[in-house]
Structures are given as C-alpha cells and as structure tokens.
C-alpha cells in the first residue's frame, strides 16, 4: 500500500530531480499558479494606491469663495430678426430661399416701418463707380440698403469702413455671362435683401450703372409706384422666339415666351414670388442653355405669364442697343457731357401710375471706369446731389 500511494514532490526537488513527464507537468502548474497570483496581487495594490490618493486629494473641495456668475446670455431682439446687421452667413441657396420666403400672416407691423429701397449690384468685381454712388446715397441713411454679388475671385477686396459698400457683399458664386447661373445670382440677391423686412422695392444694377437723378427723386418714384418694372415683349426672329425650346412645353408655351432687359425693379410681393418659383425656373435651369440667355427671358416670361397686370413691361435702366451686336454701347469719359446726361434724363415718353410722364429712366449703363472723373465733376450738378 505504501508503494501505491501518490506523494507530492516538493518544488525545490523538481529542479534537481531527473527529467520525467510528471515533473514537467508539475513545473508548468507551479509557474501558472505563480503568474496568476502575481497578477491578482498587482491589481489589488493599484486599487489600494488609488483609494489612498483619492481620499487624500478629493476631486472637489469646499471653500468659502463665492461661485462665479454665469456668462450673460445674448437674447435675440426683434431688431436682429427684421433688420439683420450682418449679411454674410453660412446658409446654402436652398436654406436662404426657404428663410427669405417666410411671410407673416399678421400684416400690421409691430414696429415703426420706414420702407427702404434695396440697391442690388450684380458685378464681376468691385463697384468701380462707387465714388459716384457714395455721393448719390449721402445724407439718406435709413432709406436704403446696399447688396453686392460679385465673383469669388474678388472676395478679398474690402471697402473703407465709411463707405456704404463696406460689409455689403453677400455670399456669392461665380457667374458666367448668358448662363442660367446669372439668374440664380439675381434670385440670391433678392433672397438676401428680403431678409430685411424694411426693404420694399428692389433694384438690380451692375458695376457699369449710374443714377440719372438724385436720391430723393429716385426714392419717391419707386416707393410711390403701383407697378413693377420688368421689361417684357414678344419678339419674332432668332433672338426672340428663336431661343425657345420645345422641351419647355407644356409648362411654357411658345406664345408665352418673352424677352426683355435683365435690369429690373420690383416690389416686395413680386420679389417673394420670384424666389419662391418652383414651377418655371426649374424649366429654365434644365432647358435654357447655350444661346438661350436665361437672364433675358426668365423674368420677362415669368412675370408676363403670372403677374402681367401689375407690370409696366418697361425697364428703368437706359441701355443703348442701337449699334447692334451682343453687347450695348459703352460710354467713356469723352461721352460724358451736360447735354448727354440731360438727354438720358428726359429723352422718352412713358406712363407712370396711369399718367403720361417724361421721367422714364432712373439709371443708365454702360459707363466705363475711365468716365468716373468727369461723372464726379458733372453729374452731381446735373442731378442735384446733396453737397
């Protein structure tokens, strides 16, 4: 019985005993046990050390110091909503148009509202005739707002702080002449201007435009008008109906196709309709390409088809196309005389609020930057700008 009884070999004898399989197994079990014991001991020591540290240095202490007051909150005022002071934003075109198309159901304003004119400049770069416009706007703060849409390549140019153009550039995109993205830029200008609830009339201008009358005359003419000024007429031939695409049918029929100047003036109601149009503008985006020239056809067609009764079908911006070609006549410093400016101011007949009138154009183009010097010397006297 003594020979059959199993005996436990002491650990120290394992190293000196002759090699046997049973000895190897015992050695492995011994080291495995020691390893597990060491790991458990290490974790226990770490926990004890952390608890001692936590008790010695608590995460918070109670002191007699007074707690700091919370930072002041910036509550949004009504003024911030109806008259945005900063016109740069991060909205996409879709978000902008959605925001700008909001119309209050309550028609009575809960504040004193002085109607303003939004002067919207669609330019390739800076407004090079800005010194003339500075004199035009001088002394009439509170009656107008300026908005500039220009190519991104000119975004680094900044106007002096005292300028009416300072900080008035809206988020802009590249625009190609004759492409539908020019109409997209016009809608972008309208949408940004509509964010200010004081804007009642909207004028589209270029960097080559000049005013033909002083601010008081222009403001009164626009604010008191009961019509919109979007040129619209039916023109046969290749540059009229010849630009119509049959793919636009039946949304737009050939007999509804219109042509006109892109330089418009409109009231707030029509501006809201233009940016909210989801029926006709997508058709132009899709089918008015190449030689279609959407800027000469979209608004004339849309306004004539939907809002023709309140449209004068004429533009307020004089442009000379008598020389022919794809571009109008350009005026340099040699063209700027007192007689020339007087002719632009009164050389036509039209209707205004149902009555015959001799003041038919409030603006004119295309003037080159080289004409600025003579314009600054002659125009203020002819147009009677404020001194």
Automatic annotation (TrEMBL):
InterPro entries for this protein: BC10-like (IPR044174), Glyco_trans_14 (IPR003406)
PANTHER family: CORE-2/I-BRANCHING BETA-1,6-N-ACETYLGLUCOSAMINYLTRANSFERASE FAMILY PROTEIN-RELATED, CORE-2_I-BRANCHING BETA-1,6-N-ACETYLGLUCOSAMINYLTRANSFERASE FAMILY PROTEIN
Entry keyword Lyase: no
Primary localization class, coarse: membrane
Membrane topology: Single-pass type II membrane protein
Transmembrane segments: 24-43
Name the UniProt record assigns to this protein: Glycosyl transferase, family 14
GO MF, one example: glycosyltransferase activity
Subcellular location: Membrane
Keywords, in A-Z order: Glycoprotein, Glycosyltransferase, Membrane, Transferase, Transmembrane, Transmembrane helix
GO CC terms in record: membrane
